[in-house]
Amino acid sequence: MSNSIKLYRLVHSKWAAQAFDGEGARLFGGRWNSKGQLCIYTAGSEALAILEILVHLNNRVALNHYRLFQLTIERNELMQISTSTLPASWREQPATAETARIGDSWLNQTASLALAVPSVLAPRENNILLNPKHANFSRCLASNTELDFMPDPRLAL
Fold first, then answer.
1. Separation between Cα atoms, residue 131 and residue 128, nearest integer Å
2. Has residue 153 been placed in a domain?
3. I want to staple 118 with a disulfide (CB 3.0 to 4.6 A). Which of 81, 84, 123, 125 is the partner?
4. What is the mean pLDDT of each run of 10 residues along the chain (157 residues)?
5. SS3 72
6. Interstrand relation of 114-118 and 78-80 (parallel, antiparallel or unpaired)
């Protein structure tokens, strides 16, 4: 088994230059972070990255304006949260403050570069949060590669 893990991030083309600054999460907050907290959301697979974006779009054609990035981290840089330890409300829409507090606590501790959290859309798969304040973040960012991305026209909304 490899000691490295591939992470995927799908970003609108107009934000590609800022894909890994954590500003979107800081400005708007997310399921796993409060407003004011820098955080980068990635997925454990290319398919999950697409699904996590597709659920927020009004039409599939909008995917044509997205770019796909891949990062690599070491397995020992990843902490994991099990669904059994999460509050009953963790999948609610909109997201509750409970899950943001969990992510905020992890971000503030800087104990690990990455935190695997279950996806609301596919709970047996993981989204991976990255902490841009972690000492190893710049090394992780150096592994950034843009991949060819052409969404399949059969994807429908």
1. 10
2. no
3. 123
4. 92 97 97 98 98 89 94 97 95 96 97 98 98 97 96 80
5. strand
6. parallel
- 121 falls within a domain: yes
Task: Write phi, then psi, for 72 (nearest 5 degrees).
Answer: -125, 135
Q: Domain range for residue 17? A: 4-147
Tell me which residue of 75, 80, 73, 76 sits closest to 139, measured CA to CA.
73
Contacts of 67 (CB under 8 A, 6+ apart): 10, 11, 12, 13, 16, 19, 146, 149
Report if residue 157 sits inside a domain: no
- Find all residues with CB under 8 Å of 79, minimum gap 6, and list them: 106, 111, 112, 114, 115, 116
Handedness of CA 55, 59, 61, 64 (dihedral sign): negative
103 occurs within a structural domain: yes
For the chain, the domain total comes to 1
User: Which token pair is 113?
Assistant: 């570069």
- What's the pTM? 0.95
The 8-class DSSP code of residue 125 comes to S
What gap in Å lies between CA 136 and CA 141, rounded to an integer? 9
